[in-house]
Amino acid sequence: MNRGRWTAALALACMIASAGAQAGPKNFSGVASYYGNHYHGRTARGDRYDPGKLTAAHKTLPFGTRLRVTNPSNHRSVTVVVNDRGPFVKGRVLDLSMAAAKALNMTARGVARVQASIE
User: How would you classify the pairing of strands 76-84 and 55-57?
Assistant: First the structure.
């Protein structure tokens, strides 16, 4: 293999490995919280936060990733789209929009243990 092809192949392999590492696991679980009524800013993707949309923040998943989020204590599920970064509280795996939190029936406690899977 000549040097040009070797360099291109190495670059492609690095890009593929990097993309896989950033995407994270296909299934994960942990504690989720939600955006309170006080938040009216923009998301990391640049969207204006809309409490009525089914969206979420995750630390590393690519924007636009669709997640099926389930509250195992009541078996309620919702599909959300990642459009923000966070949460920035230790031990939390997702920040959900108000609509998603209501769909999971977690607004009374503020946090809930959830299971999530990439769709």
Answer: parallel
Q: CB within 8 A of 29, min separation 6: which ones?
A: 93, 113, 114, 115, 116
Share the mean pLDDT of the chain: 85
pTM flag (> 0.90): no
Domains and CATH numbers, the chain: 26-118 (2.40.40.10)
E strand or H helix that includes residue 19: helix 3-23
Angle 118-30-59 (CA atoms, 0-180°, nearest 5)? 60
Give, in order, the Cα–Cα distances in Å from 61 to each of 2, 6, 19, 27, 108.
36, 30, 10, 12, 27
Residue 9 in tokens: 């192949």
